[in-house]
Write a structure and sequence with these properties.
The protein has 166 residues and is α/β, with parallel strands linked by helices. The protein has 4 helices and 7 strands. The longest helix is centred in the last third of the chain and has 18 residues.
Length: 166
C-alpha cells in the first residue's frame, strides 16, 4: 500500500549523468531530449517513478545547461528533496556550487551523487565537502552500481525528516 509520495528533483551540470541516473532507477522513464554532436542532451526534463518502502517517488531531471535555469526553477517548485549529480571525472563547476548553496539556504534536503565512480579517471574525493551534511554517495549510473542504495537511503532520510517535522 502506498502511504505517501515524494517529489525529488535531480540537478547537475551538463553530462553529469542525471538522465542515466533516472534511467537506472526507472527503465521506463521519459526523457525530452535533443540531438547534439556528442549524442543527446536533455532540453526540458526527465521523468521517472519508483516505489520505495511504500512511498511513491517521482523523479524530475533538469537540463544541465545554464541557459535552462528557468526550467530548473519551474521543476523545483514544491520539491520535497533534491539530488545533485556530479561527474567524478571532472572538476567541480561554479553552477553546481551555486546550486548547492541555494539548496542549503532554502533548507531543501539534498544529497550529492558522485557519478562515474567506475571510471579510471574518477576522483570522488573532490566532492567530499560539497554537502556539509555528509550525504555524499559514489555511484555508477551506467552500471547501476549503488544507485538503488543511494536513492533508498535518501528516501528514508526524507521520511525521517517528515516525521520529525509533524
Amino acid at each position: 500500500m502506498i502511504r505517501d509520495k515524494l517529489k525529488i528533483v535531480v540537478f547537475g551540470a551538463f553530462d553529469a549523468g542525471k538522465s542515466s541516473f533516472i534511467r537506472a532507477v526507472d527503465p521506463a522513464s521519459k526523457h525530452v531530449e535533443a540531438r547534439t554532436a556528442g549524442g543527446t542532451t536533455t532540453v526540458a526534463l526527465d521523468f521517472g517513478r519508483v516505489t520505495i518502502g511504500g512511498i511513491k517517488v517521482f523523479l524530475f531531471g533538469t537540463p544541465g545547461q545554464e541557459r535552462f535555469e528557468f526550467v530548473r526553477q519551474i521543476l523545483s517548485r514544491g520539491m520535497d528533496g533534491a539530488i545533485v549529480v556530479v561527474d567524478a571525472t571532472r572538476m567541480l563547476d561554479p553552477m553546481t556550487c551555486t546550486l548547492c548553496e541555494w539548496l542549503h539556504e532554502s533548507a531543501v534536503p539534498f544529497i550529492i551523487l558522485v557519478n562515474k565512480c567506475d571510471h579510471p579517471d574518477a576522483r570522488p574525493e573532490r566532492f567530499a565537502d560539497l554537502a556539509d551534511n555528509g550525504y555524499v554517495h559514489c555511484i555508477s549510473a551506467r552500471t547501476g552500481d549503488q544507485v538503488d542504495q543511494a536513492l533508498t537511503a535518501f528516501v528514508e532520510r526524507l521520511g525521517r525528516l517528515r516525521r520529525e517535522n509533524k
